[in-house]
């Protein structure tokens, strides 16, 4: 059974981050996760400026990192956010 | 021997909010007795100007004599802008007399200037400060009629050309734009969808080629008829490259931060309209006799007017707390400002509707001694919408609440009491501290637990606070179980309802904090429990509770205070200063 990793020992997996973010976006849109492209612009799915606030709160809570409130503006696709989170977590580890 | 005073010219010292409550504010003194028919800036003069559809020239003069422009200029740039709650109270004074003046020559300056204080360079800030210190009007050309508050869909285009910038496109429903000496313009600088495609520009209308900037016809309005709502069209209008305010693509972020200030201040300011409407009804009711007594001696009218006074105190507690939070809790105000800008206009409008019923036919007569009522009644919805409507405010709150539910409610600790202490000076407003979204630390609502659950001893107040704590628990559970879609701007009615209920809990928390932390208020009424009991009873009724029978008895005391303030010409707010 999986247990929470101790701080500093968490392994960072890009694909896990990507799939977590994809399922978050899919849940907001109430669409199957297979309908969301990781290189598609969030704004093209109708997820605009205010939604970015929701997403960055969720990312902060999910990964325990602080992100700028404009995260999803400057990193407008799931792929771009994945990279950002990956870098942040790697730097932390 | 000649003594040369080398000290710089100091702006007028402001009276501390709770100092010497028998002395009117300097601006209020300039307006004088509004009921004096010979007063060139009295109610009759403003009603006449409204009938003509223009600003009252004498009113403009009064604001110039006072030096209204300096109120919007940060102290560091030679003005008087330090605290947001002070600015809200100055503008509230103007709103007591006239909405068109208060918005067009007052509040609008904040919309135009706050983005420049936040993101402009030193030269832009110096220039805009000089425009305002000379009392010249400014305008914020932000909205386009087709897109309303959805600013990301802005069409007005700015393109780089020959080392400068060229503006093309139009802005509509812009207050005072044709008279402004400085205009901030929101423009699209990239065709990419999203929130990094917009830039703000600071325009000096006197410096652009005349034929490249055209003013659109004025819009006529039902309320604030004196207001000059116009539009502007830029026809390949060249600007220097230095006109950009902040970096390219920064506009939406700057606006999200700065409009927290404008929302908070505007909500606190517009209370002045309802203050005068309530005063007008009391003028009428204390003289008018029905069934052998004055109207205000009828129990139903007494309860109605006491409740409306209570509503004004609720609104002032909420707006003052939000304004002060800009200084004390700048990381949290994205939620507070939007919740306030939703709830306060809603409470004000209901209060105005009930006042109109109490005033009867005089609520719509455009002449006679109570004619100011119908004018203010028409001004109020215009003030409520400027500069963001209720729906967009709730849509700003909704995405942020799930996180407060998860991380903050029942966990965050209570704020620094300075947040609520009306007389305590705060560090000057720092736009750089404000954040586009709120952190997970809702300290205002933590006051509900700190004061309401853990400190209060009065049994009636304890019962009311227990209801509110239960509501907060329900809200927490509600947000936690809500489908993700309802946490986005696409939320269904359930998301909006939870956001509305949160705003009520926030207002109640502000009332409790203000009451608890101002036990040195010079007016014993503000230290006593009656007003806060009535306030919390009214707010819990809003949440669907039956009125608490024990809370009803406090109505009498609230009404006695209202009559006393009316007789002594005192403001119907948390301060209660004499008006003239």
UniProtKB/TrEMBL annotation, chain A:
**What keywords are assigned to this protein?**
Phosphopantetheine, Phosphoprotein
Is Phosphoprotein among this UniProt entry's keywords?
yes
Q: Which InterPro entries match?
A: ACP-like_sf (IPR036736), PKS_PP-bd (IPR020806), PP-bd_ACP (IPR009081)
All residue ranges annotated as the Carrier domain in the record: 12-89
Q: Name one Pfam family in it.
A: PP-binding
Could you tell me which Gene3D superfamilies the record lists for this protein? ACP-like
The protein here is known as Acyl carrier protein
TrEMBL record, chain B:
Q: Which UniProt keywords apply?
A: FAD, Flavoprotein, Oxidoreductase
Composition bias, Basic and acidic residues: 7-17
Tell me where in this chain the Acyl-CoA oxidase/dehydrogenase middle domain is found.
141-237
Q: Which Pfam families match?
A: Acyl-CoA_dh_1, Acyl-CoA_dh_M
- Which residue stretches belong to region Disordered? 1-39
Q: Does the keyword Oxidoreductase apply?
A: yes
Q: Which cofactor does it need?
A: FAD
Q: Which residues form a coiled coil?
A: none
- Ranges for domain Acyl-CoA dehydrogenase/oxidase C-terminal: 254-385
User: What does the sequence similarity comment in the record state about its family?
Assistant: Belongs to the acyl-CoA dehydrogenase family.
- Tell me the protein's name: Acyl-CoA dehydrogenase
Q: Which organism is it from?
A: Streptomyces coacervatus
């Amino acid at each position: 059974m999986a247990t929470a990793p101790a701080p500093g020992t968490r392994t960072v997996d890009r694909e896990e981050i990507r799939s977590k973010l994809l399922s978050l976006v899919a849940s907001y849109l109430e669409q199957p996760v297979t309908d969301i492209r990781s290189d598609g612009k969030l704004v093209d799915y109708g997820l605009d400026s205010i939604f970015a606030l929701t997403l960055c709160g969720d990312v902060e809570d999910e990964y325990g990192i602080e992100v700028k409130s404009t995260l999803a503006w400057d990193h407008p696709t799931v792929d771009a956010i994945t990279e950002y989170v990956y870098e942040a977590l790697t730097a932390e580890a | 021997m000649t003594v040369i005073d080398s000290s710089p010219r100091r702006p007028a010292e402001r009276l501390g909010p709770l100092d010497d409550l028998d002395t009117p504010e300097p601006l209020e003194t300039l307006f004088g007795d509004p009921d004096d028919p010979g007063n060139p800036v009295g109610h009759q003069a403003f009603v006449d100007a409204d009938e003509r559809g223009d600003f009252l020239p004498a009113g403009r003069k009064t604001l110039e004599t006072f030096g209204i422009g300096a109120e919007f200029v940060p102290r560091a740039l030679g003005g008087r802008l330090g605290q947001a709650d002070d600015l809200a109270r100055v503008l509230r004074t103007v709103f007591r007399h006239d909405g068109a003046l208060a918005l067009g020559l007052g509040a609008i300056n904040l919309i135009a200037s706050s983005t420049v204080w936040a993101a402009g360079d030193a030269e832009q800030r110096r220039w805009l400060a000089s425009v305002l210190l000379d009392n010249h009007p400014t305008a914020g050309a932000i909205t386009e009629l087709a897109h309303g508050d959805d600013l990301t869909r802005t069409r007005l285009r700015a393109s780089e050309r020959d080392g400068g910038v060229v503006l093309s496109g139009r802005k509509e429903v812009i207050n005072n734009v044709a008279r402004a000496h400085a205009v901030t313009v929101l423009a699209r600088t990239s065709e990419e969808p999203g929130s990094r495609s917009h830039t703000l520009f600071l325009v000096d209308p006197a410096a652009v080629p005349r034929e490249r900037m055209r003013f659109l016809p004025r819009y006529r309005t039902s309320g604030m008829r004196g207001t000059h709502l116009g539009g502007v069209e830029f026809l390949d209008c060249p600007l220097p490259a230095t006109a950009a305010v902040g970096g390219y693509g920064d506009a939406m972020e700057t606006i999200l931060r700065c409009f927290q200030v404008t929302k908070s201040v505007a909500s606190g300011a517009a209370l002045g309209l309802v203050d005068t409407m309530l005063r007008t009804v009391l003028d009428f009711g204390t003289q008018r006799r029905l069934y052998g007594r004055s109207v205000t001696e009828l129990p139903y009218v007494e309860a109605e007017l006491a409740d409306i006074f209570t509503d004004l105190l609720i609104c002032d507690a909420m707006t003052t707390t939000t304004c002060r939070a800009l200084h004390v809790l700048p990381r949290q105000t994205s939620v507070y400002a939007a919740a306030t800008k939703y709830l306060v206009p809603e409470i004000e409008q209901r209060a105005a509707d009930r006042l109109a019923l109490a005033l009867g036919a005089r609520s719509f007569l455009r002449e006679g001694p109570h004619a100011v009522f119908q004018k203010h009644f028409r001004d109020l919805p215009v003030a409520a919408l400027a500069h963001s409507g209720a729906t967009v405010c709730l849509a700003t709150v909704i995405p942020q609440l799930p996180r407060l539910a998860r991380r903050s409610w029942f966990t965050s600790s209570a704020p620094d009491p300075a947040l609520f202490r009306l007389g305590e000076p705060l560090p000057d407003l720092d736009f750089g501290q404000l954040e586009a979204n709120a952190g997970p630390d809702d300290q205002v609502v933590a006051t509900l637990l700190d004061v309401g659950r853990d400190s209060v001893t009065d049994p009636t107040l304890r019962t009311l606070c227990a209801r509110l704590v239960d509501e907060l628990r329900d809200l927490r559970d509600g947000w936690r179980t809500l489908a993700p879609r309802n946490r986005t701007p696409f939320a269904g009615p359930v998301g909006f309802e939870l956001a509305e209920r949160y705003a009520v809990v926030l207002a109640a928390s502000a009332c409790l904090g203000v009451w608890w932390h101002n036990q040195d208020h010079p007016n014993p009424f503000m230290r006593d429990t009656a007003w806060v009991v009535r306030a919390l009873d009214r707010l819990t009724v809003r949440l669907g509770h039956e009125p608490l029978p024990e809370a009803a008895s406090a109505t009498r005391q609230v009404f006695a205070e209202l009559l006393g303030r009316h007789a002594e010409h005192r403001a119907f707010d948390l301060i209660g200063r004499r008006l003239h």
